[in-house]
Batch of 2 targets.
Target 1
Amino acid sequence: MRLVIQRVTSASVRVDGQTVGEIGKGLLVLLGVGRGDTDDTARLYAKKLLGLRIFEDENGKTNRSLADVGGALLIVSQFTLYADCSHGNRPGFTQAGDPAEADRLYQFFAGLCREAGAPVQTGIFGADMKVSLVNDGPFTIVLDESLEKK
């Protein structure tokens, strides 16, 4: 899996002109599912995401988690996080997960976050989505395969 996590003061996603997901303070998560990702992969990334302490405390230190600040998640599927640009100028996506399995893992991941108590909004898997956000900081983190090697 690959996650691009952006701390936001607000974020939303629209499909066909309709808002399908919207949050205030929290995290916008762009989620890519790769070949070979499993339920265990989703569990690992969900646990890491929910435990990240990237919100400021009263002393201005990034010491608070999403739950600590009462924040929400907007999770948007994005297979293009698996773009391979190493050959030519047209990206290849052979490392992205099979669409049916990627959709299942995307929904599973969102469900894990909900079960842990996080308010979760999502986009629509495979749809042409328009994502808007107000990045807070900006503060952006990428979680990728290096997480799995630890």
Target 2
Amino acid sequence: METENKTAEAGANYAVKLSAKERFLFSIGDFNAGAFGLVLAVYTVFLYANSLTASAAGIIVMIGRVWGAAADPIVGILSDNTRGKHGRRRPYIFAGGIFIVFAFAMLFLPLYDLPSQTFKFIIYLAAYLMFSTVSSMLVVPCAALATEITADHDERNKINTLRTVISFLSSIVSAGVPIILTEALQDKKISVTAFSLIMIFVFGAMYAVPTVLSAVYAKERLPVPAERTRFSLKAFFAPLKQKSFVYLVIIYAATLACADLVGSEIILMAEFGLDIDFSAFSILGVMMFFLALMIPVHGRLMKKHSKAFLFRAGIPFYIAGVILLCFYPPDWNDYFLFAVAAAIGVGMAGCQLMPWYIFPDVVDLGELKTGTRNAGAFSGLMTFMQKLLSAVLIGLAGIILDASGFLEPAANADGIVAASAQPESAIIALRFVVAAPLVVALIISFFVAAKLKTSPERSRLVTKILALKRTDRLDELTDGESAEYERIKKECL
């Protein structure tokens, strides 16, 4: 009788329905996701304005993201092993919300009149290392906490939908406004110093406040393992023994790394690769609008269709749109680019949304396989792979652009940027460094995602199995559920 009461209590405590207040206050922490998109979109151009070469800028971003990739699993394991009255994840999210302001102050120091290229390189590299560390303190614990705030499958989907909406609202503001400011910088309407002050004081504060609120009001509910994890290479790569996690890592790393590459080059592509009369923000805005439009659509479709299917469904639109954007015929009407951007937004939606919807299901499968729940290690390894690939792609892009004869738009002594016309070789290189990696990554991801054998019914069954397994009551499964459990072990674990 006592065991039965514990099982009922476990189900009641873990698979809870959240209040609207907690759901919202936890989800607004994802507003800081815009910080990463902002830095990707404008930082290389900012470095050019401060007289760094494309190679130097690419190397700074590459080293910084490799550092961030290494920091992710470390933060993941640290948070898995943290014990205290404030939980395992929230202290890191709170600290990250405070330090992101200081990271922005370092990142956007205006150093255009500093004569030493080496000194500038060292300062901006140190700033990017700091930003990458703060990024790890936010992304990894937040992803883990999203799997631990409740065990209810439908409630997690609601949370992830709201997080995604907030994340994309942030992305629109965080990419759109800085792109407009960057274009003003290149059009000699504002100085590098004015640009820096806006980045530091406006955007730094805009990311810090909701992150701190999220850390204060969120709750961690799922049980904390009694045994702590010791860091080792074996423990670090242990999640890769789970088949479903391997497939998830491949599709996440491939698609998100290439999206990072596109984000880092989109301003240059609009400025030099497309001869258009309107702002690059217009194209980005259409992409983001149609991507956001797909969020409620996917929310409904997830109730009946597998998340892997929804991930794959938009990839043909994504590939076609990117190829058209990068090799847009000069004799076509410029306004047809909005239709191209819409196709990219629709296609990108599944690739951007589904990996994090799939993630809690894969963490559940990990607990089913090992008997312990180390979501921090899972999210750390997942983002490690993505950032590592992203770093290599962005670093190589900078080197290729330099080799192609790219002319960096640098600021003069007054902090005013004077852009130059690019040689044809640089424009061709710019088109290929964006299109080629993305198309290859999307094709690979399309076929790998087909191996993810998840479904809403399976996720609910796994939740039930875990609740029974925690109190040694697996004998309560029906014959049909036991048979499906065996198929799950064979196909997913």
